[in-house]
Specification:
Chain lengths: ~350, ~400
């Protein structure tokens, strides 16, 4: 694993410090709790702050108004946002913007970076597969078909099609949006396109953008899981039953150590994949990302289950903060594709590489 | 009983750490391919001293028998990263593991806690293959709870008099020296009254008895001490201070027990077996295999972060157990998958010298002790819970 260059370490330090503009330093979850279940499920004011900090352009080239920072830097923010349960569609915007940059579809990039326009990727045709080309077709310059599970609140959708990228405003004629409430208080939308006139921007890098998004999302999941684990550990230290802190019981200690093992594996796999990506290494990069995302997904499910169980009945109340984490993990662990599909993809790439 | 010495015959070592990994790897590969003696490769069991002695001799004469010792003490002076390259190349060629308790355990301990006289006497004898050491820690009543040990040592004039029993002494029958933890203060608290003693196994009153293990090998021994007299000077560190030293020895060892190589070898075996018997085409098996392969690769990433930390001189602390826990459990999961895929052939006991590439049962058995030795998984989890997760006692 190559060492991170010093300027990357310094960038991460500065990003971490400035993240308190969005994620309160005292760990308060009041804003998160209050924003739940009210469409679009996040704050447009906070969105403007993200834009002012320049974070939406973290991965874009400087000539397009971006910061041109590495995956390690984006990962640092992603982890912090995961730990803070940030509901703003930050990662999906990064994904959409990387698609737009790769497709040289420049129309909306400027206003997106300023926070005026929110862009969301519409890439998935079914909720359980990595199929950016699926679900839609383009005939005579018109877009037909459907995409699912798109982050809510976007002004423009970046739709991946077999021919390339199509940008569709949310008020386009022929667009039907079905809105769904999610258990973490955010919203997702299924989109139906009925002969919407659109320009197609050729894009050869859809797969690269998708994999980078998947890797950054692994960092988000890990951030959420790690904080939920910390909260659970604190509960194990304080909660007394049978005249002893329940964290002194060996059965719980051994299960807690398994979470620690999975957490460290997840961190190592994510960082190694980020280093490979930043280092321009292509050999086995996709496999490394599939591993990282798969590990983080498994970690998320493990922590959700154990955090709920170790908290006992209080963990099943809406009032306890741990529930916010359980519900966030329920929603996020399922994003992109089920772990068995990631494993199948890993196996095909493994054989192709041998 | 001592062994005739191997005399080192080589120019002073260069600073291997200053070489690139690739350059160093080429040097090691060339050496191994040209100098490995006519003894078994890819052995599924530890070779006994007469079998492995030629390889010890080659390494001793080259000055490579103690990879991590400082160069001025006769070692190669390798940092963790270069050491890993050396191990990888030895594994790749299937080199037998030599008797390494002296170089891995006792040598570093003497460098830190021994007297100058002890260092001058014992370290060269290890390098020359004159002393083969055994580790006398566990007892019938003191396994995971090592501090419950009951072997005693009492001062009688200029001698310690040792009585008691040690067990699970790896390759004890090949050793002419043993280091032994013994209770020197019965009144003190468990850990406080233990000392670290050096005992020749040919001393009057020492009996070594081999124990056959599940693999059918006599790798373990019991050692009985019946009023064994050793010189008063054969103690390392202060009287009653042996516990801390003994524990310190285990820390570094655990990083390397956590190296992915055992699991990697087992996974190659699983792939070879599955490709040979049709399981490879089964989508259910492929999913399970993919999970194991991903676990192995993630372990590799985690191992690399620990090696990086060692390289920069950072300490790892209790977290070191994470590697050992995951590696040993993964090794067992892969070995169990091998047994499943082998089906009705799973129980075949390989003939001596047979083709070990598909040996399911051998791998299954070899994987068993890894969750026990060097700290059982259960005890490692107890330690991790308290020291790393800060959970209450």
């Amino acid at each position: 694993m190559p060492q991170q260059p010093d300027d990357s370490v310094e960038n991460i330090r500065m990003l971490t410090e400035s993240a308190s503009a969005v994620v309160p330093g005292d760990g308060s979850l009041d804003r998160i709790r209050a924003a739940r279940f009210q469409h679009p499920g996040f704050s447009r004011d906070v969105w403007m702050t993200l834009a002012e900090m320049g974070w939406l352009g973290l991965r874009l080239g400087e000539e397009k108004g971006g910061l041109a920072l590495g995956v390690h830097e984006a990962m640092a923010l992603s982890r912090i946002f995961g730990a803070g349960l940030v509901p703003e569609p930050f990662l999906s915007s990064l994904f959409a913007l990387s698609l737009m940059e790769a497709a040289k579809a420049r129309n909306w990039i400027g206003s997106a970076l300023h926070g005026e326009t929110i862009v969301a990727p519409a890439w998935q045709s079914v909720p359980n597969a990595l199929d950016p080309a699926g679900g839609v077709s383009v005939k005579a310059g018109r877009l037909h078909g459907a995409k699912v599970a798109v982050a809510a609140g976007a002004d423009v959708f970046a739709v991946t099609t077999p021919e390339g990228l199509a940008l569709v405003p949310c008020d386009a004629d022929g667009l039907t949006i079905k809105r769904m409430r999610m258990h973490d208080g955010t919203f997702r939308e299924d989109l139906h396109f009925d002969a919407i006139p659109c320009e197609i921007h050729e894009c050869e890098k859809v797969q690269d953008c998708l994999y980078e998004a998947m890797l950054l999302h692994a960092g988000f999941l890990q951030g959420t899981a790690e904080r939920a684990f910390d909260i659970t550990l604190e509960y194990l230290r304080l909660r007394k039953q049978f005249d002893a802190p329940i964290g002194s019981f060996q059965a719980l200690q051994h299960r807690a150590t398994e979470i620690k093992v999975q957490l460290e594996l997840s961190r190592a796999a994510i960082d190694a994949a980020a280093s490979a990506l930043d280092g321009g290494q292509t050999e086995r990069l996709s496999m490394a990302i599939l591993r990282a995302r798969s590990r983080a997904g498994g970690l998320g499910r493990l922590v959700a289950r154990e955090a709920a169980q170790m908290h006992g009945a209080i963990g099943f109340t809406d009032e306890a903060d741990i529930g916010l984490f359980v519900r966030k993990l329920m929603v996020e662990a399922g994003q992109f594709a089920p772990e068995y599909q990631l494993r199948a993809q890993f196996m095909s790439l493994r054989e192709a590489a041998a | 009983m001592t062994n005739p010495p191997f005399i080192a015959d080589h120019p002073p070592h260069p600073d291997f750490n200053a070489m690139s990994d690739d350059a160093f790897r080429a040097v090691v590969r060339d050496f191994v391919e040209n100098h490995y003696p006519d003894i078994p490769r890819f052995a599924q069991r530890r070779l006994r001293w007469p079998e492995v002695r030629p390889w010890y001799g080659v390494l001793a004469q080259k000055g490579w028998i103690a990879p991590t010792w400082p160069r001025e003490l006769g070692g190669m002076g390798l940092g963790a990263g270069k050491h890993l390259v050396l191990i990888e190349e030895f594994e790749r060629f299937g080199c037998a593991r030599v008797h390494d308790i002296g170089t891995v355990m006792l040598g570093p301990l003497l460098m830190e806690y021994g007297t100058q006289a002890q260092r001058d006497h014992y370290l060269p004898r290890i390098l020359r293959g004159e002393d083969i050491w055994a580790q006398g820690y566990s007892e019938p009543g003191a396994g995971s709870d090592l501090a419950a040990l009951r072997t005693t040592a009492e001062l009688d004039g200029d001698h310690w008099v040792i009585s008691g029993q040690k067990t699970w002494v790896t390759l004890g029958a090949d050793a002419n020296m043993a280091f032994v933890l013994a209770r020197t203060d019965k009144a003190a608290k468990k850990q406080a009254g233990i000392s670290f003693l050096l005992v020749p196994t040919d001393a009057t009153g020492v009996t070594v008895r081999p124990i056959e293990n599940l693999e059918g090998h006599a790798e373990f021994c019991e050692i009985f001490f019946d009023a064994v007299r050793i010189p008063k000077a054969n103690i390392v560190g202060e009287v009653n201070r042996g516990w801390t030293m003994a524990k310190a020895l285990l820390g570094h060892e655990r990083v390397f027990i956590g190296a992915p190589r055992l699991s990697a070898n087992a996974l190659s075996r699983l792939e070879a077996l599955a490709r040979g018997n049709g399981a490879w085409e089964d989508p259910v098996f492929r999913d399970r295999f993919a999970g194991l392969a991903m676990d192995l690769a993630d372990l590799g990433d985690l191992f690399e972060t620990y090696v990086q930390r060692l390289r920069t001189g950072a300490s790892i602390g209790a977290d070191v157990g994470i590697l050992k826990i995951f590696q040993s459990e993964l090794y067992q999961r892969i070995s169990e998958e091998l047994m499943q895929v082998a089906g009705s052939h799973a129980g075949i006991k390989l003939e001596e010298g047979g083709d070990s590439r598909f040996d399911a049962a051998g791998t299954y058995l070899a994987a068993r002790p890894t969750t026990i030795f060097g700290g059982s998984t259960e005890v490692m989890r107890n330690v991790l819970a308290r020291a790393s997760l800060n959970l209450p006692k």
